[in-house]
Amino acid sequence: MSEPVTALNNTSDATGIAAVSEIGPVGMITLRGDLNASYLRKAAAQIAGVDVPAPLGCNSSDNRGIAWMSPDELLVMCPYAEAGETVEKLEKAIGSNFATAANVSDGRAVFRVSGPLAREVMAKLSPVDLDPAIFKPGMFRRTRLAQVPAAFWMTDDETFQIFCFRSVAQYVFDVLKVAAQSGSAVGHFPLAEGQSANT
Amino acid sequence: MLVLTCHACGVTAEETEFHAGGEAHLKRFGPGSSETDFEGYLFMRDNPKGVHFERWRHVYGCGKWFHVARDTMTLEVFGSYSAQTYTPPDDLIAQIEDKRPDWTRKAATA
């Protein structure tokens, strides 16, 4: 196999109020079908090592996870090198049932925004209520970042993981960098106790 | 700005996350229909001042279609309901009739 290359060579920027970096490559498999079917739930949970999340949720650990994309779609995440065999495993589990698994790892770019002010950076770009009382780690949201579709979830209280189409990776990185430029803190969300932010 | 709730995934978001799909509950007139019916199906749309039923798609989210009942003048949103239906649910109609005593739902026509 040839060496996988991410869209932006895992470039990063830590000069602003939150650190922005491209991470990856990440193995991503789109799984579509009846999400209540046990053959699908069991196979996905076994591969990802986490339970199938409730609607609008994402369960993740280290480099594996499952995200709820829509009422008939899941995204299974795994190490990049395992994506191929994971699709085969899923297809075997699906058998003759009406469902599909597709490896979409190379079509996406993955970013991480981290720091006490990560919420502010994301709130500047997407029409989502990111109040700490409303949007919490474990929740998953497909939405837009400025002008392009993207999806994100929080792996912990100050880390967002974002994915978007690979073709708009440069745009997303640039727009995140602008939203995180130093001196641009708004101070809208209260910081958790003991947190201090480099504004 | 409209704030809509997607009936398919339950997300409540403002209108830029959605895409409007025009008037809802049109009856299709296809091959074999009269020219007037076909023209009506293709081009004739209601443009009411007040209660309106529309199709919307959660284009940046789950990607599903759903229906919305709203007021085109006040922008009040009465509710959203499944795309897999030919008519608005009765409880939604009752709720709209409560709020807009002058309004009656017109019979489904072309």
UniProtKB/TrEMBL annotation, chain A:
It comes from the Bacteria. Pfam families: SoxG (PF04268). This is Sarcosine oxidase subunit gamma. InterPro entries: SoxG, TrmE/GcvT-like. SUPFAM superfamilies: Folate-binding domain (SSF103025).
TrEMBL record, chain B:
InterPro entries: SoxD, SoxD_sf. It comes from the Bacteria. GO terms for biological process: tetrahydrofolate metabolic process. Signal peptide: none annotated. GO terms for molecular function: sarcosine oxidase activity. This is Sarcosine oxidase subunit delta. It holds the Pfam family SoxD.
